[in-house]
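Here is the promised in-class demo. Please do not try to memorize the tokens; focus on the logic of going from shape to residues.
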């Protein structure tokens, strides 16, 4: 822990800012019920009230407290995006490493399957699948994970292909180690740096993808608080010069920028470059 704090203290200001943003968002998501002044779904006043001492960010189209909805939205949007990203990486890494280690028919089947999925724009494919299978949170996580795993597969396979030709992998094969052992003990430890960097970037894309689906009405469903749907629900206020719809949009943009700051610093650190 001390080593991490020391490394972070030596990081550029942008990386420190990004880490601070991530910590604040995670703290807000974990302790949302304690931080929010009102319930997630509680109707507390009239519609579209302006900011006041009682309702710091005003109320939404149903009279719910916007600040409380923003806080609960951090829990729902961030955690769902995190779960979908983790599942996407599990699927993509296992398939990618299996294709790299096995080669032959396994590689061809997985690669052609991924090519077929990637041939359709991801947003259109996501809308189609959610229309067919429903918009419950488990289905939403599964659909996003499957679609995003195709991109993780491409990276995992490419990195794995470069590692399987190394001498220590050949030595493991000669010792009689199986493919699963090689994937876990030889390929994964040597592929962590690009995969960790990709995890941060992929989380941002999943986060934005969920917000876009919610804005279109096929993501996280009301009355669950979600920043994308909150933009849609209050979009009519923009015509009257009210900045309320921009508040959840700003929350989305700020987390995306913070994660990218940290990922850029991590990539710079593992690249071996120095000023």
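The designed amino acids, position by position:
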């Amino acid at each position: 822990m001390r080593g991490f704090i020391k490394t972070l203290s030596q990081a550029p200001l942008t990386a420190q800012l990004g880490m601070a943003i991530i910590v604040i968002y995670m703290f807000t998501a974990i302790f949302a019920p304690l931080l929010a002044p009102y319930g997630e779904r509680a109707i507390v006043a009239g519609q579209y009230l302006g900011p006041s001492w009682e309702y710091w960010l005003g109320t939404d189209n149903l009279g719910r407290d916007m600040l409380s909805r923003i806080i609960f939205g951090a829990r729902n949007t961030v955690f769902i995006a995190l779960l979908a990203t983790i599942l996407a990486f599990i699927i993509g890494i296992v398939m990618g490493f299996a294709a790299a280690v096995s080669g032959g028919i396994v590689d061809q089947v997985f690669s052609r399957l991924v090519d077929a999925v990637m041939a359709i724009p991801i947003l259109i494919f996501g809308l189609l699948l959610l229309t067919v299978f429903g918009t419950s949170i488990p289905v939403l996580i599964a659909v996003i994970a499957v679609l995003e795993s195709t991109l993780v597969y491409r990276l995992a396979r490419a990195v794995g292909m470069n590692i399987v030709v190394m001498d220590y992998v050949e030595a493991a094969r000669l010792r009689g180690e199986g493919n699963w052992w090689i994937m876990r003990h030889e390929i994964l430890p040597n592929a962590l740096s690009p995969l960790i960097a990709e995890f941060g970037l992929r989380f941002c894309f999943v986060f934005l993808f969920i917000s876009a689906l919610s804005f279109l009405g096929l993501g996280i469903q009301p009355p669950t608080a979600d920043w994308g749907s909150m933009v849609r629900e209050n979009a009519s206020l923009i015509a009257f010069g009210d900045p309320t719809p921009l508040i959840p949009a700003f929350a989305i943009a700020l987390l995306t920028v913070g994660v990218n700051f940290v990922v850029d610093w991590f990539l710079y650190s593992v690249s071996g470059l120095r000023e």
